[in-house]
Amino acid sequence: DADVTQTPRNRITKTGKRIMLECSQTKGHDRMYWYRQDPGLGLRLIYYSFDVKDINKGEISDGYSVSRQAQAKFSLSLESAIPNQTALYFCATSDRSVAAGNEQFFGPGTRLTVL
Amino acid sequence: GIQVEQSPPDLILQEGANSTLRCNFSDSVNNLQWFHQNPWGQLINLFYIPSGTKQNGRLSATTVATERYSLLYISSSQTTDSGVYFCAVGYNTDKLIFGTGTRLQVFP
């Protein structure tokens, strides 16, 4: 079984709808991240969380919110989806230990289309 | 903020050829990762290599942190190596900054 899972894997929605993307991990990592990838570009950080009570904005957080329900779960919400939020969304995790060196591990991605 | 540049942007090879992909970064880093994004969009961790050299089968990577670059070597390329290769770096935080990638196409 995959260590980092994302649901749904694909989603088509309409402008103005509220959407939630979910991420779960079995790696036991404290740190979780949400990234967005636009066509032809690298990933950009939306939000990240170091533990259940710690949420931080990334470089492109406008229009998004997150919830860290448990150590293993981190959800991304689009309160009112717009077409330019059409993208591939990735969840990632990392271990806080110095020995782990902050290597990040990524889920399979969610392809979101906003019409 | 830190800048990450990858070259070449596109690479076309015939099966069996070797290649070198380069990643330059503009500041000191304590995290550097190489990823392969396959045609289905999945990101696969290749190397965690903030410094030094590592090898995994036909792939190897070298990071020279003092000169702010990393190289990914692919030997005896196969069609399954096709996709986009990303370099990503982090510095004093847990955030990864991604380059724009090298798109590799390997033909039989």
What does this protein structure show overall?
The complex is a heterodimer of chains A (115) and B (108). Chain A is mostly beta strands and 115 residues long. In chain A, strands 2, 4, 5, 6, 9, 10 and 11 form a seven-stranded mixed sheet that branches. A four-stranded antiparallel sheet of chain A has the order 1-3-8-7, with no helix packed on it. Helices cover 0% and strands 56% of the residues of chain A. Chain B is globular and about 45 Å long. Chain B has 108 residues and is mostly beta strands. Chains A and B meet through strand 4, strand 5, strand 9 and strand 10 of A and strand 4, strand 5 and strand 9 of B.
Number of helices of chain B: 0
Beginning-to-end CA distance, first to last residue of chain B? 41 Å
Query: Which percent band covers the strand fraction of chain B?
Result: over 45%
Radius of gyration of chain A: 14 Å
Mean pLDDT across all amino acids of chain A: 92
How many DSSP E strands of chain A? 11
Helix and strand arrangement:
The complex is a heterodimer of chains A (115) and B (108).
Chain A: E1 4-7, E2 10-13, E3 19-25, E4 31-37, E5 43-51, E6 54-57, E7 64-70, E8 73-78, E9 87-94, E10 104-106, E11 110-114
Parallel strand pairs in A: 2-11
Antiparallel strand pairs in A: 1-3, 3-8, 4-5, 4-9, 5-6, 7-8, 9-10, 9-11
Chain B: E1 4-7, E2 10-14, E3 19-25, E4 31-37, E5 43-48, E6 52-56, E7 59-64, E8 69-74, E9 83-90, E10 97-98, E11 102-107
Parallel strand pairs in B: 2-11
Antiparallel strand pairs in B: 1-3, 3-8, 4-5, 4-9, 6-7, 7-8, 9-10, 9-11
